[in-house]
Structure formats: structure tokens, C-alpha cells
From TrEMBL:
<comment type="similarity">
    <text>Belongs to the asaB hydroxylase/desaturase family.</text>
</comment>
<keyword id="KW-0560">Oxidoreductase</keyword>
<dbReference type="GO" id="GO:0016491">
    <property type="term" value="F:oxidoreductase activity"/>
</dbReference>
<protein>
    <submittedName>
        <fullName>Uncharacterized protein</fullName>
    </submittedName>
</protein>
<dbReference type="InterPro" id="IPR044053">
    <property type="entry name" value="AsaB-like"/>
</dbReference>
């Protein structure tokens, strides 16, 4: 039930992994590539829907609501949105995003390894169909509460994008280097009024709520977490988000302690009147590896926005 003090909050349906006893002896999986569907079903997961109260970050301080370690809301005007169709390593938007992260984390070592585009559609039944996620063939929003990278998968994912020399330097001295996988998420439509991205306060999540899920493909065997629903979980979104309002969030952190959540759970969801919106949500997310020497503090930078104007 919504309370009057929760100004801007909405009640919406979200998808979670089922709390099944079979996970005690069977590993859940979700195919990352359609090329494997001839070998097995796309997933062995039964997703379940729960109605959640999702509060609006415009009426609170984001670092208070979601904690300072895994999430930041930044105000940043991009100069290079027109370059997003350029599919190569010299894309100006990718360079701009790298510079943004270098300033935020106060480090010179940032490697942007992937950009993924998403566009909402009206066909809810096609949610599990994989697409390239390119500018020309965008993927669908991800309607499942999840963390992109599991605790055990982080170093393996990072190693894919490091040279042999870089791997020797950064992966074998945890006392000196802190490694993070970071997502920079930006709307491309005028504002998001149909399918926002919601984040769960990691302090409201028990580690036991995170179910490790295999994500096999032809090129890499990844692992993520899908969230099991619990009533104490606290969810937040940003109403009417515009392209200059950018989410920077951590998917994996080498310094996350045992028993803590190593990446922030998130999910797309439909607002109540989403089908009446004329312009569907379009977004781009850049995934990057951030490497910094110990002693730097994500919370200490002064480039971040607290509240944003509506």
C-alpha cells in the first residue's frame, strides 16, 4: 500500500526468480545467445511477478536512498549522442564516457568494453528473445530483478578485456588495486515515461536473496544473480528521466566484503499507463572496467548530483 509520505511513488509489477526447492540440486540458467536454443530450452527458471512499491528519487537524496558505494546519479550533457550509430572502438561517445568515469573515480585506467542499446516494445511475450543490442537492432528492456555479474564471475569477465601484461599487473595484487565493473546508463528519448529502470537499495537485500544463474553463450560462460523477492526490499526509480540524467552503477566490486552485495540489483518495469506513451523508452548503457589504486574513494568526488530538477 502506498503512503502519502512517499511522494511520487508508484505501485508496479516486477519479475523475480521463483523460490523453488529445485535450486538446491539444479543450477538455474538463462541462455545468453539464441544460437544455443537447439541444444536446450532458453531457461529452466519460472519467473514470478510481485507488486512492489517503487519510490521516486526526485523526492530524496539518491546517495541516502541507495547508498554511496554502488550507485550515483549524475547530471551530464553529452556532446556526442549523434555518434552512437558509429560501431567501432573510436566512437566519440565511448571516449566521452571513459573520461566521465576517469573523473568520477579519480583514475586513469578505465576500459569501456561494450555498449548496448535498448528500446521498449508493446509485445510483452518477446522479453526473453535475444537481439544484438546494437543501435540498429536494439535489445528489449530487461524485465527481471538482477545483478549483471556474480561475485565469482567478475574477475573472469575483466580478464577477457585485459592484455596479458595488464592481467599480470592488476589481477594478482588485490592489496594494491581495486577493480570494478561499472554501467553508465542514459536515456536516448526525450524523457522516460513508460519503462524506467528501478534500483534496489543493496542494504535491504540479503545475500541469500541473490540466486546465481548461469548465462552460457558460444563465446563466454557468464554468471549473474537474479533476485528472489522479499518484502523488505526497497526499490527506487527516477520519474521522467531525461538524457542528461545519467545512472552510474556498480555491477561488481573486487573489494565487496563477504556477506555483502557486490553489485546493485536493478530491473526495468512498466509504469501504469505505459501503453499510452507515444515515445517508447530508448537507452544506451556503456559497460566499463574501472581500475584504481587503493585509497581512492567513490564517495569523495564532487562531480555528482544529489537531487535533480524535474
Amino acid at each position: 500500500m502506498l503512503h502519502t509520505r512517499d511522494k511520487g511513488a508508484v505501485s508496479a509489477t516486477m519479475r523475480f526468480i521463483d523460490d523453488s526447492p529445485k535450486w538446491r540440486h539444479e543450477k538455474p540458467y538463462l541462455l545468453l545467445s539464441s544460437g544455443l536454443v537447439d541444444e536446450c530450452p532458453p531457461t529452466n527458471i519460472n519467473f514470478v511477478e510481485h507488486t512492489c512499491v517503487i519510490k521516486d528519487l526526485r523526492y530524496t537524496q539518491p546517495e541516502t536512498a541507495l547508498g554511496p558505494d554502488l550507485f550515483r546519479l549524475m547530471v551530464h550533457e553529452s556532446k556526442y549522442l549523434d555518434s552512437l550509430q558509429q560501431q567501432d572502438n573510436d566512437n566519440p561517445y565511448m571516449h566521452e564516457t571513459v573520461d566521465l568515469l576517469k573523473g568520477l573515480f579519480q583514475t586513469d585506467c578505465v576500459i569501456a568494453y561494450n555498449a548496448r542499446f535498448r528500446r521498449n516494445q508493446n509485445n510483452y511475450q518477446t522479453l526473453e528473445v535475444n537481439s544484438p543490442g546494437t543501435y540498429g537492432e536494439p535489445d528489449l528492456p530487461s524485465f527481471r530483478a538482477h545483478v549483471d555479474v556474480s561475485r565469482d564471475c567478475g574477475l573472469r569477465r575483466i580478464q577477457r578485456y585485459l592484455s596479458e601484461e595488464e592481467a599480470q599487473t592488476y589481477l594478482h595484487d588485490s592489496e594494491k588495486w581495486r577493480l570494478r565493473i561499472v554501467n553508465v546508463w542514459r536515456p536516448l528519448c526525450a524523457q522516460v515515461d513508460d519503462t524506467p529502470l528501478a534500483f534496489c537499495d543493496p542494504r535491504s537485500v540479503n545475500v541469500s536473496d541473490l540466486i546465481a544463474v548461469d548465462r552460457p553463450s558460444e563465446n563466454f560462460h557468464s554468471e549473474m544473480y537474479i533476485l528472489r523477492n522479499e518484502p523488505n526490499q526497497q526499490w527506487y526509480y527516477l520519474s521522467h528521466q531525461k538524457p542528461h540524467e545519467v545512472f552510474v552503477f556498480v555491477s561488481w566490486d573486487s573489494d565487496a566484503g563477504q556477506g555483502s552485495v557486490s553489485g546493485i540489483p536493478h530491473s526495468a518495469f512498466h509504469l501504469p499507463d505505459w501503453k499510452d506513451v507515444s515515445q517508447p523508452r530508448e537507452s544506451v548503457e556503456v559497460r566499463a572496467i574501472v581500475i584504481e589504486s587503493k585509497g581512492n574513494d567513490f564517495r569523495a568526488t564532487n562531480q555528482l548530483s544529489g537531487k535533480t530538477s524535474s
